[in-house]
Every structure is written in C-alpha cells, then in structure tokens.
Amino acid sequence: MTTALRALGLVAAAFVVSSCSLFQGDEEKELEPTKLIDFETKVDVKRLWSTKIGDGAEFLLVALQPASDGNRVFAASRNGNVVALDPGTGKAVWRTELETDLSAGPGVGEGLIVVGAANGMLIALDTDSGAELWRANVTGETLARPVIKDGTVITLTIDNRLRAVSAFDGAERWTVEQATPALTMRGSASPVLVGTSVIAGFDNGRLVAVNIATGNTEWEAMLSPPTGRSDLERLSDVDGLISIVGQDVYASGYHGSLVALASESGQVLWTRELSSFKGVSADWNNLYTVDDEGVVIALTRRTGDESWRQNALIRREPTVPVAFQTTVVVGDLDGYLHFFSNFDGNPVARVRAGSTAVSIEPVVVADRLFVQGDDGKVSAYVIRQPKRPDNAPDISDNAPDVSDEDT
Fold first, then answer.
1. Phi, psi of 185 (to 5 degrees)
2. pLDDT at position 226, please?
3. pLDDT at 137 over 50
C-alpha cells in the first residue's frame, strides 16, 4: 500500500472519530485532557542544559530521539540537522546539515550514525566528524530508529518491510516482508537486537525474529490478532517500544496484549490483556506501559502481575514510561515531564521541557535523562540527591573498629 493510501486511511479514521464527537454535546468535556493537579515535590529534578538543534516536527509523529555511544549524545532534527553534543554541557562537537527532511534516528553503532529520511533514504555519518559516508534508498519512509550490528544496518519501513544494508557502503543485503493490513496507524516499532538476531514488530500484529547475517526468519509470534468487522476495529499494529531484559522480550500491540516471550524461540512466557500502541519499557524488576486511554501501568517483569496504575495523564497523550533511578518518567502533549515513584506510582516531580509536545519517550544514559521535544529542542536532566546536613554525624565515626585479627 502506498504512503498516500495509508495516510488517506488514517485521515478517514480520524474523521469518523471526530464526527462522532460532534453529537456528544456536554459529553465533549469528558474527552478533554486530564487537568494537572498539584502535589508535593519529593524529587529534585535539575535541567543541566537545553539546546535547539533545528526545526521541530510537531504533529508529525516522527521517530527522532537522542542516542549515545557512551561518549557523546547524538540527535537529529526534522529539517535535516544531525549534531553531536557534549553530554555535560550540551555544546555541539559537530553539526552536519543534510538538507532533507528526516523521519527517524539516529541509530548509533560501530562508528556510524544512521538516520532515516522522509524520502526513503538511509544516510550514514561518521561518529567522530559527522562526515557523510553513504546514502541508501530503502524505497520507503522509516519511522523506526535504525539499529547497527555486525557490519549491518537494519531498519523497518512503513510498507511493512524489514531491510538490512551493509554498514560499509549501504548495499542491500536482505529484506523481510509481512502482509500490510488495509488500515494501519502511523508509526513503527524500532527493531531490537538480541544475540545474532533482530526482532521487529509489524502492522499485522506479528513479532518476528530474523537472523542478522542471513535474513532468515527464526520465529514469528502473533502478538495482536486482528478482531472485529471494520478495518478500524481490526487495527493490530505493533508500533511501540519493544524491550529486552536478558533473553526475554516484552512487547505490546494495539487492540491486543502485552506479552513476554523467550528471544531464542518465540515461546510465550506469559500474556496480559492490555492494549497499547506506545509499547513497553523495562528495568530489572518491572515493566512500564501506557494504555490507549493514557493510564500509566507498572507490572512485575517475571509474571506480568499489575503493581500499580496512575490515572493522572488520561488523554494527555503520554509517552511510554521510562525508568530513571527511583522514578518513572513520562512526557506529554504540553511538553511536561512527569516523574512517578517506581514503587507505588505516586507523582514525585514535574518539569516542563518545552512549549510543544514530548511525543517520543526520553532516553536514559547513565545518571542522565535526555529529552527531545517536538520543537526540535534537546534537554538533559539529572536528579539531585539531597545534601547531608553539616551537623550530620559521619557514619564512619560510629563504625566498629575491625582489626586484621577480626577479619
């Protein structure tokens, strides 16, 4: 299906939804975003720096998100700027202007930065200098961050094709294609890497593992089976964040379930009925997701049992929650970052990253949180630890002496 037809289908679906609201009268107020409430701030969140990298992408639902190689932070803007930033100061180490609209990235690895352009091109740059190395035509717009491993760049395009090209020169290596439904949502799940495999979610509700070297399909799992009579009811896209912890894969589908699978076989470990097109994030103990209404939900990673839920962001278009130290961070349509306790889901802090939406989840690198808003602004945050009072006793003063004989 062409991009134009896909867009037409989405417009038609949006018209159906908006037309229904015309007849709701007083009930229309119920569809407004939940108003923010006051609470006691319990975590001290400090913005380290903020920098504008280029023109924004408001309402376009593109996948432009900061990435890091451990030394620098890389980011790309809708109007074609790719920058390398010092993570401590936010100052640009280098900037490259590609003079084309970008839709996804950057993906970082093996000395490369790869971004996806709206015209169907993949563009690779050198991480040290920002020099352009090659361009490859993948014949379709990508809304998923490319991934790089073993000399291979892999991306998922909106025509439901997983494509691999050489990291050396962009030459095509293999393509895996899945059937495309009549109606899909705008978006794609960024592929994830596990061992020698890449795992990707498709618009037909399937999760597929593919061998990176050969392009052979290793397993498929139906994550979100289409149901209902209309194309709108049968939407089953796997468009949100897919997470990996150890050898376990966690993903969710629209009108479907949140599922844990074994990465080596695709065997379902457990499943929970929960519809989410934003996906699922994970830390060692918990999973975090947001349902179609905007309810933030935490589940235990081992069993999928619900730990808590938070209703403060209903209809505020929250991003998928991201674990950051003892908090879970969520962006929203007004540019706020909401920090909730990862223990019980209670709000502990709120800051505003910008005047436009934060439509893609923040990124955690070590002890810092990096956020890119739809206005093309990238910001870095830390959680400041409370200062110890000057008159507080030194713990070591009360510690028992331990001699060599004692040990």
1. -90, 155
2. 52
3. yes
What is the C-alpha separation between 18 and 11, in angstroms, rounded?
10
**CA angle (245 as vertex; 112, 288 as ends), nearest 5:** 100
Classify each residue of 139-160 as buried b or exposed e, where b means 16 or more C-beta atoms within 10 Å of its C-beta: ebbbbbbbbbbeebbbbbbbbb
∠ CA 197-199-200 to the nearest 5 degrees?
A: 145
Which pTM was predicted?
A: 0.84
Q: Do 64 and 56 touch, CB atoms closer than 8 A?
A: no
- CA–CA dist 239, 203 (Å, integer): 7
Q: From start to end of 195-318, where are the E strands?
A: 197-201, 206-211, 217-222, 243-245, 248-252, 257-262, 268-273, 280-282, 286-290, 296-300, 306-310
Query: Quick one: pLDDT at residue 396?
Result: 44
β-bridge partners, 297: 289, 309
Q: What is the CATH number of domain 39-385?
A: 2.130.10.10
Query: Are 103 and 143 in contact, with CB atoms under 8 Å apart?
Result: yes
Give the domain ranges of the chain.
39-385
Instruction: Return the amino acid letter for 250.
Output: Y
CA distance 103 to 28: 33
Measured distance CA(178)–CA(2) in Å, rounded: 15
- CB atoms closer than 10 angstroms to residue 406: 7
Name the token pair of 167: 């990291």
Task: Render pLDDT for 115-133 as a digit per residue (tens, 0 to 9).
Answer: 999 999 999 999 999 999 9
pLDDT tens digits, residue range 164-177? Answer: 999 999 999 999 98
Give the whole-angstrom CA distance, residue 235 versus residue 403.
69
pLDDT recorded at residue 4: 42
Structure confidence at residue 365 (pLDDT): 94
